[in-house]
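hey can u check if this looks right to u? its 264 residues, i copy pasted from the old doc so theres a chance i mangled smth
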Amino acid sequence: AEEHATDVFQVEPKSLELEEGETKDVRVWSFPLEVGEFSNALLACVTDNPEPMRYDLKSWGVEPSVDIDGPWAEAIAKAQQELDECEDKKALKGLEDALAALKESFTFSFDRQLINKTESKSFTITNTCKLPVAWDLDMGDFKESANIDIVPSSGIIPVNGIVTVTVSFTSPEPLVLEGGFSLRFSDTENGLDTEDRVGVRQFKVNSEAYTIQTVALNAEGQEEEGSSIDYGILRVGDYATQALKIRNKGKYAIGYKFTMKPSI
């Protein structure tokens, strides 16, 4: 065994007397106070019996633990590499702080997307301890949000089990959204109801929904927002031009393409 600890195991009663044909119970408890494997032996010595009876005891002290993996792993790995390769002592503190911030709050960056479009990102929770783990989500800044959806939001992960959680963002109107939520995990014996037995992991979400606003196509002599180009009356064989102005009224650059469609 990795460790022996007499205080881990408790026996009650430690001695007793039995009448002829009588049976009594002896209770043995295990109370590990730290993570690890513990072993001992219970010896039952019987009066006038030269050979004691031996019962080997073993237990494991376990704390709920999980491993979380998601789209932020690349950013953390890059920050770690920059820190390892840094030779400028003045820059070390900034790199260490940046790495600590990435590890403290796992970040979902949805960047920007068009309105009414749904984008999803996932992360996994792996049970890394020897007992099932109960978990749930505290939606934090998104408790009343119609833009962020996270499923599933709670459950129990068996030993060596993995659960995938999907975070989705959508908005019917232009919106910049930032905020956080947290993962809570504990043992399955009402651990989530006992504050000092709950582990917490923090998450951040950065997202933006935008729209491509109307592009004004103007020709000389026409009102803004016009949708036609009038060359007027021309003599056969004459060559005429019109100057067009395209204006992007949106927040970001857009692409455009002209196609010629014959009139019917």
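The two ends are 90 Å apart (CA to CA).
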